[in-house]
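Weekly sync notes, structure subgroup
Attendees: PM, AL, DS (notes)

Item 1: joint prediction request from the bench team. They want all two components modeled as one assembly rather than separately. Inputs as received:
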Amino acid sequence: MTITFTLNGQPVEVDTAADRRVVDLLREDLGLTGAKEGCGSGDCGACTILVDGESRLSCLMLAAQLEGRTITTIEGVASENLHTIQAAFVEHGAVQCGFCTPGMVLAAMDLLHRNPHPTSHEIRQALSGNLCRCTGYQKIVDAVHAAARSCDLREGK
Amino acid sequence: MKQSEQKPDSMLASHGPKDTRLSIGTSAPRADAYAKVTGTERFAADYYGFDLLWAGVKRAGVPHARLKSIDTSHAEQAPGVVCVLTHRHINGANRQGVIRKDQPVLVDNKVRHCGDAVALVVAEDKKSLAQALELITFDLEPLPAVTDPEAALVAGSVLVHEDHPGGNVLLAGDQSTGIGEAAADECDVLVEGCFRTPRQEHAYLETEAGWAQVQEDGKLAIVCSTQTPFRDRAEVAEALGLDLSGVRIIAPYAGGAFGGKDGVTVQTLLGLAALHADGRPVKMWWSREESFLAGTKRHPATMFYRLGAKSDGTLHFISVRLYLDTGPYDHLGGVVLALALEHAGGPYRIPNAVLKGWCVYTNNPIGGAFRGFGVTQVTAAIEQMMDMLAQRLDMDPLELRLKNAVRQGDRNCVGKTLVTSTGIVECLEGLKRHPVWTERDAWKSASGPFKRRGVGIAALMHASGYGPVVPDFANAKVDLTREGTFRVYCGVVDMGQGNAATNAQIVGAILGQEAGRIELVLPDTDLTLPSGSASASRCTYTFGNALAGATRILRARILQRAADLLMVRNTEEVALIPGAVRCLRTGREIPLQRLAEFFGDVERVATDHFRAPVAAEAETLNPDVNLRLHGLPHTLFSYGAHAAWIEVDELTGGIEVKRYVALSDCGTVLNSQIYEQQIQGGIAQGLGLALTEEFLVNEGRITTPDFFTYILPTATDVPEIESIPVEIHEATGPFGLKGVGEIAVNGPLPVVANGVADACGVRIFSAPLTPERVRSAVAARAREETL
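Output from the run, pasted for the record:
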C-alpha cells in the first residue's frame, strides 16, 4: 500500500506492505540506520522514534500506522548545529558504545517537551524504557539536566 | 528562537570535536560521540548495501545429541533461498576456539548445547530466510545432558568431548604457597563459606552482527562487531580452509561487547555464506533470543572457601576450591579459571594458600570472557569472607582489610611479588575518611519503618594483560598526511570504552595538535597493525604505549625537518603548535602542510611496537606450564575500594542501593570523563549481577530467553555513583596509567551482600540477592531467633 507521512521535515510517500515493521522500513528501505534494533520486542528502546513528537518504539509499529503522521528519527534532530540535548550528551559523556544513544536522545526530547524542568527522578523514570549497558545512566541523567538548563538559558529564564 | 549570541557554548557545538588543543589529564568530550549522537556512526549492524543477501542459522535446540543426518531438501526448494549449507560445505578445519579449538562452525557429529549451529541458510530476504530455517530438520540420537559441573567430574560421567584427554575437565588448576594446608591448624580463627554466583548475560545493545562479501580480488572481507579482528582473521581462515591473506576483518565501533565478542560469533558463518553468494554481500544479525541462546555468558561459579587468621586479625591461611561451568566449548574458560585462582585471595598478604579450581565442560550455554573474567566471582567470595572473619574477630571490617592489604613488595596469594604500583592501602585509607564511611552510623540509625539499613564495603584488585607466556603486544602507526594532518591507525577495537578517542588524545598531546587535525582509522586487518584483543584491561596500556612511541618518533622527525628548513641549529629551537612548527627564537612558522611536502612517503609514517612486561618469577611460582600458558601470574594490577549504603525492605525483601562510592587506583587519569564512564558502567553491570541478573538454565535449556525474563538494571535501578580516582603514577604505563576497564564490575556484589548482612544480620550465599532470597533468609533467621 502507499503510505504518506512527514519524515524529518520532508513529505514522503512509500509503497510498502502495510504490516512492514517501521524499524525495517526506516533502516532497510529508507537507509535511516539511526534507529537501532536491540530486541524486537519493545523491551530496550533502542529503536525509539518520535511520532507527532511523542516517543514510540519503531519495532512495535507497522508501516500503516505512519499514515498522515509526522516522524522524527535521530537523523532529523540536528540541523547545522547539534540539538541542545545532543550537545549535552557529547559534553557530559553520556555516550559510550552509542548503540542506545539515538533512542535515549529522542526519549529525552519527548521528556523535555512534556516537562521542561524534570527532577532526577523524573528523568530516570522517563528513560527507564531505554536500556543502556555501558554508562550506568548517570551521565545520561546529567546530560538531560544540562540540556534542560541550556533551554532555560536560551529562553532567558 | 532566533540564532542569537546568547546561546550557551554547548548550543554552538558543531558536528565535530571542538578545535581545542588536546592534552593529557583533561576531560575532553570523546571524538566518537559526535557521530554516535547524530545516528550517523555506522556499526556492523548498519551495513546493508545493493543486492544484499541475508544469512541465518538453524540451531540444535537440544543440549546433547549425536547428529545422524540433516535434511535440507525442503529448505533448498523454498522460495527466495540461495543455498543451504552444512558442515559438508566447509573445506577447512570446521573448528574454532582460542586455546583448545573444540567448537565446530557447523555441527558435524555431536550437538553439545542448544545453541549449536547445525545449518546455514542464505536467502534473498529476511522473510524467506525465516521460512527456510523452519523447513530444515535433523535426525538426532539424544544423549544424557551433562548439566552439573561437580557431577561432571565424577568418574564414569557422560563426556561432552570424548576425545579430550582431561575428560570433562577443560582445565584444572592447583597452586599452593607456604606450608599449605598445615597452616590451618596454626590459625586462631577459621571461617568457612560456600558461595554461588550466577551465569550472567553480556546483553550488549548491539547483538552479534556482520556483513561479508568476496571482493573483486577474491579476498573475503568481513565487517563485524568484534573485539578481536586479527585473531578472527586467523580463526576464519583456518576453519574455512583459506589463506590468512585471503581474509580481511574490518571492525567498526562495536555496540557494546564486554567480553562477549572476544572471539568468533558471526564471522565464520558469514564468511562461509559469502563464499557461496557469488560475489553478493551477505548480512547476518542475530536476534536478541539468538544472542542469548548462542552467545557466551559469565561462568557460573561454586566456590568453597576457608579463611584463617591469628587472633589479632593477621591473615594466615586460605583454602579455595572453585568450580566453573564452562559449557561445551573452550571460549577462554581455562584463562578465566587461571585469573580467578590468581585473585582468589584478594588484595591481601596471605602467606599460606591452597588454591584449587576446575573449569568443567557441560552441555549448558557457553561460559566465556565477561568483564571481570573470573575475578568478579572470587572477589564476591573473598570479600564476604573478610566480613565474616571481621565479625568472628569482632573487628572493624575496614580495619581488618587495611591490616592485611598488600603494599608494593608484598606477595599476593599465589606468591607473586607485587613490583608495580600498588594502591590498595591508599584506596582504603581514602574510603576510611569518606562520609560514606564516617557517617554510616547516623545514616543507618535513621531508617524508616519496615526498613533496615546497612553499609557494605569491598576491596578490589584486578590484573591486566595476558600473563607470562602469551605476548601482550601492540603495533601502532601514525601518519603525517600530505595535508598536514595526522592519521592514527588504531590496532585495538573500541567497543564503547573510548580508547579510540584516547588514542587521538595521546597523539594530540604529544604533537600539540587539536582534535580536528587527527583522524582515526579503526581496526582493519588490511590497514592497521596487529595489536591483540580489546580485552583484559589492556587496551590503552598496551596500545597506548606503542602509540606514544610511534608518535614521539614522528614528532622527532617533524621537528628535525623543521629545524633544517628554518635553518636553526637544533630541534630545541622549534616547537609544534596546532597546524605548524614555530621557531622559538624568531617566531617564524612553517605550516605542517608545507612541511609534509618535504617528507618522503616512507618518512611520513612512524610505527612502534610495545610488549608488556611479565612476571619475572613466573616459572618458579608454579611448575604447571599449562597454568602459565593460561595466564598465571600477572604483574600489573589495578586496585579499588568500594562502599555503598544499602536499604532493605523488611516486607518485600527488596534492596535499594542508596549511595555508591568507588575509589580506584588505575594509575594516572588521562581523561576523567572516560575514566568515570568505565567506573560507573562497571558498577551498574555489577549491580545487575548483585540484584537481578540470573541467566537461568534447566537441563541445558534456557528459561530466561529475552529481556522480558532476564532483568537488566534500568535508569531507576542504578544510584548516583561517586568515582574518586586515587592517582598513583605507574612507571610502565603510558603517562602513568593502568587499566580501568574491568575492576569496577567486581565491587557491587560483595558490597551489596555485605551491606545486606550488616542491615539484616543474614548472609546470602547465592547471587543475585533477589527479594525472594532476602526475604526467606530473613524469615529463617527470625524463626531461629524465636526457637
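Discussion: The mean pLDDT of chain A is 96.
Action: AL to compare against the crosslinking data before next sync.
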